[in-house]
UniProtKB/TrEMBL annotation:
Positions of the UniProt region annotated as Disordered: 1-33
Biased composition (Low complexity): 8-26
Matching Pfam families: ThiS
InterPro entries: Beta-grasp_dom_sf (IPR012675), Mopterin_synth/thiamin_S_b (IPR016155), ThiS/MoaD-like (IPR003749)
Superkingdom of this protein's organism: Bacteria
CDD domains the UniProt entry points to: Ubl_MoaD_like
Name of the protein in question: MoaD/ThiS family protein
Organism name: Streptomyces triculaminicus
């Protein structure tokens, strides 16, 4: 259709776009584990040397194994961790096998060493 410019008809031409190459289907990669925060309290905080650190793990067992790996030069960390109890998103883990405790995206693992008193 002609285009009008200041009362004068001007023919316009359109150039065809080159064809887009076909997209390849997305390649499935390995699943990305959930990411969240491990919070250390009292002796666990002192042994870790930090109040918190991130996790990228699907289970509590995987998150704790990664934490042990990050702190392998600190033998006190592993010793304290072995005596701790854990809360995952506010729920006590208790005696459940850590490999069965699923972690969520944006979740929180609280690492609680034994406390005196009550």
């Amino acid at each position: 259709m002609p285009e009008r410019t200041e009362g004068v008809a001007v023919a316009t031409t359109h150039t065809a776009r080159p064809a887009r190459p076909a997209r390849l289907p997305a390649q499935p990669g390995p699943p990305v584990p959930p990411a969240g925060t491990i919070r250390y309290w009292a002796a666990a905080k002192a042994a870790a040397g930090t109040p918190e650190e991130p996790y990228a793990a699907s289970t509590l067992a995987d998150a704790l194994a990664a934490a042990r790996g990050r702190h392998e030069g600190k033998p006190e960390f592993a010793r304290v961790l072995s005596r701790c109890s854990f809360l995952v998103d506010g729920d006590p883990v208790g005696t459940r096998d850590h490999s069965t405790v699923q972690l969520a995206e944006g979740g929180t693992v609280e690492v609680l060493p034994p406390f005196a008193g009550g």
